[in-house]
UniProtKB/TrEMBL annotation:
One of its GO terms (molecular function) is catalytic activity. The lineage of its organism: Eukaryota, Metazoa, Chordata, Craniata, Vertebrata. Residues 1-93 form the HIT domain. Belongs to the HINT family. It comes from the Eukaryota. This is HIT domain-containing protein. Pfam families: DcpS_C (PF11969). It catalyses: adenosine 5'-phosphoramidate + H2O = NH4(+) + AMP. A motif (Histidine triad motif) lies at residues 78-82. The active site is at 80 (tele-amp-histidine intermediate).
Length: 130
C-alpha cells in the first residue's frame, strides 16, 4: 500500500501475524532526527498504519502496537513505523524488541497517554528544541 507521502509493506521478518512498516517517502534517518515540524507527519504515519490494518480486516485497535526503534537499535537508517497486530501475538522470543517504553521501542500509544504527546515522544528520542 502506498500514497504520495508513505509506503507500507510487510516486515521481512515479522514478529506478529500482521507486521508492517510505514515509511515516509522523504528521508528521515531515525526518530532522533525528528523535530517539531514532524509532529503531523508522525500522526499521519500512525493513521496510515491503522488504515492498512483495517484493509487487512483488523478491527481491534486496542490490540495493536505502533512504534519506532531508536538508534542504536535500528537496522535501517530511514525512519519507519512498526505496525503490529495482534499485539497479544507478538512472538515471545521477540517481545524484548517491542516492549513499550523501553530504550528499544517507543510506542505511539504510550506517548499518546501523556498530555504532551509529541513533546514527550521527541524528548524521549533525545531531540532538543532551540
Amino acid at each position: 500500500m502506498w500514497d504520495e507521502e508513505f509506503v507500507c509493506f510487510r516486515d521481512i521478518d515479522p514478529v506478529a501475524p500482521h507486521h508492517y512498516l510505514v515509511i515516509p517517502r522523504d528521508h528521515i534517518v531515525s526518530c532522533k532526527s525528528l523535530n517539531r515540524s514532524h509532529i503531523d507527519l508522525v500522526e499521519r504515519m500512525a493513521k496510515f498504519g491503522k488504515e492498512v490494518l483495517l484493509d487487512q480486516g483488523i478491527t481491534d485497535m486496542e490490540n495493536v502496537r505502533l512504534g519506532f526503534h531508536q538508534p542504536p537499535f535500528i537496522s535501517v537508517g530511514h525512519l519507519h513505523l512498526h505496525v503490529l497486530a495482534p499485539a497479544s501475538q507478538i512472538s515471545t522470543y521477540m517481545q524484548h524488541k517491542f516492549t513499550p517504553g523501553t530504550d528499544r521501542f517507543i510506542t505511539v500509544r504510550l506517548a499518546n497517554e501523556f498530555s504532551s504527546y509529541f513533546i514527550f515522544f521527541l524528548y524521549y528520542c533525545n531531540v532538543f528544541f532551540t
